[in-house]
Design brief:
Length: 252
């Protein structure tokens, strides 16, 4: 039987629009409440070091005002670790950050940064925060995440979503399918996210060992045309359609 597939709605880019004028509208916390009413199982927010969208006050308010799990995306820095330990969100997802990047470019290099990650992963876990590592769909990165003791990985779906050539897209999807199977085999809970849209979500949602998708930019952009409730409801339907079409008990 394939497992329930959760949707985490990333509200970063509600804050992008708000910050464009430096005011308080549109309010990311209001968007989070609407997303939950529309069917989101959780809220994801990325507190970047440069605060280009989500700011500290947004995290304060999300922790105080929403009643669904908050997945705090953060760089593995001392500053962000202190903020996470103070708030104790349901989950923290460690993501790589470069100030010059437009958006997250690649997965966290768990293998290469293993020693630097021991402390943040250990301290977040000891505080009861579910740690997730945002990684490329590479077995070596999965094995390193397992060794580090992170219970969850989130597979970076950006290369699959950005692929223009059908053969390249198929190859990137195959990487994700293999990585999701490997995660299951070594006892890691498997999530996925980045760049997912109505057009790309189906094959990823059909992977039975993936239990959560984090989706943001596309949903917020689509909400400009159809409203957030409708964009989320349509994404949920696409996820459920793909998941229900997956043969029960099928391998990844
Ligand atoms: C890790 C990831 O893919 C996103 O959740 C991340 O938040 C992208 O960064 P921006 O939201 O700043 O584009
Ligand atoms: N970790 C992925 C996420 O939270 C949302 O990514 P995107 O849909 O905004 O690209």
């Amino acid at each position: 039987m394939s497992r329930q597939l959760r949707l985490g709605v990333n509200i970063d880019h509600v804050a992008t629009v708000r910050n464009a004028r430096g005011g308080a509208h549109p309010d990311p916390v209001r968007a989070a409440r609407l997303a939950i009413e529309a069917g989101a199982d959780g809220i994801t927010a990325h507190l970047r070091e440069d605060r280009r969208h989500i700011v500290d006050r947004d995290i304060d308010r999300l922790m105080a005002e929403i009643d669904r799990p908050l997945n705090l995306e953060m760089a593995a820095t001392g500053e962000m670790l202190g903020i996470a330990l103070r708030h104790k969100p349901h989950a923290a997802c460690l993501v790589p950050e470069k100030r010059t990047e437009v958006t997250t470019e690649g997965g966290l290099d768990v293998l290469g940064q293993y020693d630097q990650l021991v402390r943040p992963v250990g301290e977040l876990s000891a505080a009861g925060i579910r740690v997730s590592l945002f990684i490329d769909p590479e077995p070596a990165q999965l094995d390193a995440a397992r060794r580090l003791g992170a219970p969850v990985v989130e597979l970076h779906t950006g290369a699959y979503c950005d692929a223009v050539d059908p053969a390249e897209r198929d190859a990137e999807l195959a990487r994700i399918v293999r990585a999701a199977a490997h995660a299951e085999a070594i006892g890691l809970e498997c999530h996925a996210g980045h760049g997912l849209s109505y057009d790309t979500v189906g094959p990823v949602a059909a992977i039975p060992t993936i239990v959560e998708l984090n989706i943001g930019h596309f949903l917020i952009g689509e909400a400009i045309f159809v409203g957030l409730t409708n964009s989320i409801a349509r994404m949920r339907k696409a996820m459920e359609r793909a998941r229900s079409a997956t043969p029960a008990g099928s391998g990844a």
